[in-house]
Design brief:
single chain; binds inosine-5'-diphosphate; binds magnesium ion; alpha+beta; Alpha-Beta Plaits; 4 strands
């Protein structure tokens, strides 16, 4: 089984869509190993998105990710990384497939409801960023 990190971003919490997104996760046969609501600090958001340092949207991204609470979840399934990204849809909701989370719920490429790890090494790093091994049940 593979693990991935999902984040329900501040827009997801503000729009009261956490329940709908969790339903999608469970309907699609992911196991939720750990889940919690937290408010990211600026330092945490900058570290989490370190790979995007210097890009034109970096400051906007950090501001967005710290504007309110998020729900972080460690998911498990065969092909969890690719399957969760498929379920989320493209980064830009305008380009996302019908029925995907971002197509259904996201406002734009910045405020796009959900995060998902993009590879095995990033999934490992991102899960460890928020969860200790003993919190993964
Ligand atoms: P991903 O979340 O689909 O993996 P990334 O390219 O890793 O997409 O970008 C991380 C996050 O940065 C996106 O989910 C989105 O919130 C934000 N972002 C990416 N590209 C842009 C952009 O062009 N404008 C504003 N925000 C962006
Ligand atoms: Mg990414």
């Amino acid at each position: 089984m593979e693990r991935t990190l999902a984040i329900m971003k501040p827009d997801c919490v503000q729009k009261k869509l956490v329940g709908k997104v969790v339903d999608k996760i469970l309907e699609n046969d992911f196991n939720i190993l750990g889940m919690k609501m937290i408010r990211l600090t600026k330092t945490q958001a900058e570290a989490f998105y370190d790979v995007h340092q210097g890009k034109p949207f970096f400051v906007e991204l950090v501001d967005f990710m710290t504007e309110g609470p998020v729900v972080v979840a460690a998911l498990e399934k065969e092909n969890a990384i690719a399957d969760w990204r498929t379920l989320m849809g493209a980064t830009n909701p305008a380009e996302a497939d019908e029925g995907t989370i971002r197509k259904l719920y996201a406002d734009n490429v910045g405020r796009n409801i959900a995060h998902g790890s993009d590879a095995a090494d990033t999934a490992k790093r991102e899960i460890a960023f928020f969860f200790s091994e003993s919190e993964l049940l």
